[in-house]
Amino acid sequence: MWTAVTADDVHKLITSACNKTCQSDPVPRWLVKKCGRQLSPFIARLFNASLTTGCFPAKFKHAIVLPLLKKHGLDKDQLKNYRPVSNLPFLSKLVEKVVQMQLQRFLTAHSMMPLHQSAYRRNHSTETVLLKVFSDLQMAKDRGQVSALCLLDLTAAFDTVDHELLLRRLQRILLEFVAVLWHGLSPICLVGRTVWWSTA
User: Fold this and answer.
1) Are 75 and 122 contacting, i.e. CB atoms less than 8 angstroms apart?
2) Is residue 84 a contact partner of residue 70, using CB atoms and an 8 Å limit?
3) Residue 199 has pLDDT above 80, yes or no
4) CA distance 178 to 105
5) Is the pLDDT of residue 177 over 50?
6) Burial bucket for residue 5 (CB in 10 Å: 0-12, 13-18, 19+)
7) Which tens digit of pLDDT belongs to each residue from 122-148?
């Protein structure tokens, strides 16, 4: 399933990345960007080794978590007004972007994406969802039908995902086991993850 990552692929990702640096990065991101052309072949080789072996480097699993206010103006003394933001190493974000792009390509090529899904799709957004829902409601009204709309807002939605069920679903759609293991959905791959809390 995996397509080999080229130095050009990596260089494009490096140049398009923003300049924020994680505290755990050994060098500032701007320096990696400046030397991106020279570093890209070595980073591509690292990424390809990770994808083919199913091994996600331990250093990539370390996150520094910063508490950020959910909205400007909220009471800073109330913990409930903060949300945790994980700051991951730059190379970790790059390799995850590579996997996301390849997984997206695979699902699209095999028509496995729901037709009306707007999240995580190019040229789709909350706006396309609203247009689809509005259009459906208008067409139902034109046919003399009554419509009811039920909306759910899940707090920390990703935390509610059953990882074992997700693993079974991914295996069912014929993703290679190495790909599933790499993506951190197996309990084996969850070992070794660390989180550092920072107030800076």
Assistant:
1) no
2) no
3) no
4) 17
5) no
6) buried
7) 788 888 889 999 999 999 999 999 999
Which residue has tokens 């397509």?
3
Angle between helices 7-16 and 36-53 (to 10 degrees): 110
pLDDT in tens, 91-106: 999 998 998 888 788 7
Q: Are strands 194-197 and 82-87 parallel, antiparallel or unpaired?
A: unpaired
Q: State mean pLDDT over 26-49.
A: 93
Rounded Cα gap, residues 118 and 123, in angstroms: 8
Beta partners for residue 64, in sequence order:
87, 196
Structure tokens at 49: 């080794």
The structure tokens listed for 41 are: 């072949």
Angle between helices 90-109 and 7-16 (to 10 degrees): 110
